[in-house]
Design brief:
Elements: E1 2-3, H1 25-32, E2 38-42, H2 49-57, E3 61-67, H3 70-79, E4 87-91, H4 97-100, E5 109-115, H5 120-124, H6 151-157, H7 160-169, H8 176-186, H9 195-205, H10 217-228, H11 230-240, E6 245-255, H12 258-271, E7 277-279, E8 285-286, H13 289-294, E9 302-308
Parallel strand pairs: 1-4, 2-3, 2-5, 3-4, 5-6
Antiparallel strand pairs: 6-9, 7-9, 8-9
Helix pairs in contact: 7-8, 7-10, 8-9, 11-12
């Protein structure tokens, strides 16, 4: 069942199996312990790989599958259909986590998972505009059904100073001022509307970095985070999630770059200063070499987890 506001109109979207491979799957299961049953929340269900494994772990496990990305939610609904009413689906961002949880689940949730990475489905869909490797509209919205601000609109309307700040803070781009100036200068001749246009502009503006790393990598990251207010959404989840966990319940978060990981690490440290929580993965865990060989996108993942005390 999809839980949506009464006024919401279901958009058209892709169907078919997800191409997304779940990262750190066994490590997630070890942290969450779904084999003991109970209520679980996958706050970024994506292609449904982690959710499927959580539901397989015990016939007494129930799952709330949440995602901000409507297309991802559709794919996961198809993948998880065999589990019937043991899984419910909610279209919502992190900032709506508490309101998305059924009332009887509050305080009884055994585990919450949040995976902050882009999925293969999102990256490989050229119409979503997340990747500089293929040409597509400069969109980058996680939820095109509700978000009005696309990457193209942001680049067309933001000041040079604001663009520089986003590129520097969110993209950790050392040439942020040079790129921001080039974007604003380009507006004299026409707005940037395609991923290839932005990638070409950055490539012409700054020197090539490490071999194999496209010079536009950090720019795309910075703009995407700004469009989706990703760090604000992560902070909202980290504030709300611990409050709704049951005794001995676990919150597990998977980060894919240093900005995300610093927010998680700082939040978990604050939670664990009291006796209410313990850090069950003090340094976090990363993918083993065998997984990285199978799935190169796992190389930057880091999983952290805290657990509420049993009493």
């Amino acid at each position: 069942m999809i839980l949506l506001a009464p006024t919401y109109q279901k958009p058209e979207g892709p169907s078919g199996p997800s191409r997304h491979t779940p990262v750190l799957l066994q490590e997630v299961l070890d942290a969450l312990r779904p084999d003991e049953g109970g209520f679980f929340v996958d706050a970024t269900v994506g292609g449904g790989g982690h959710a499927e494994a959580i539901l397989h772990a015990s016939e007494f496990t129930r799952l709330l599958a949440i995602d901000r990305d409507w297309e991802a939610l559709q794919r996961s609904e198809e993948r998880l259909a065999p589990f019937g009413d043991r899984v419910q689906f909610v279209h919502a961002p992190f900032s709506a986590l508490e309101s998305a949880i059924p009332a009887e689940w509050i305080g009884n949730i055994a585990g919450i998972l949040a995976d902050f990475g882009l999925s293969s489905d999102q990256i490989e869909d050229r119409e979503r505009g997340f990747s500089f490797q293929v040409d597509g509209p400069l969109d980058m919205r996680m939820d095109a059904t509700r978000q009005k601000l696309s990457a193209a609109k942001l680049l067309a309307e933001s000041s040079e100073d604001q663009l520089e700040k986003w590129l520097r803070e969110f993209g950790e781009e050392r040439f942020s001022r040079r790129i921001a100036h080039a974007i604003v200068y380009q507006r004299r001749f026409g707005n940037l509307l395609r991923t290839s246009q932005l990638a070409d502009l950055v490539e012409r503006t700054i020197p090539r970095g490490r071999q194999g790393i496209h010079p536009a990598t950090r720019t795309f990251q910075g703009i995407r985070i700004a469009v989706n207010r990703e760090l604000d959404e992560i902070s909202a989840l980290l504030e709300a999630a611990p409050r709704i966990l049951a005794a001995a319940g676990t919150l597990a978060c998977m980060s894919f770059h240093s900005l995300e990981d610093r927010i998680v690490k700082r939040s978990f440290r604050n939670d664990c200063r009291s006796k209410d929580f313990q850090d069950v993965l003090p340094k976090g865990v990363t993918a083993k070499p065998a997984e990285i060989r199978r799935n190169p996108r796992s190389r930057s993942a880091r999983l952290r987890a805290i657990r509420r005390s049993a009493s």
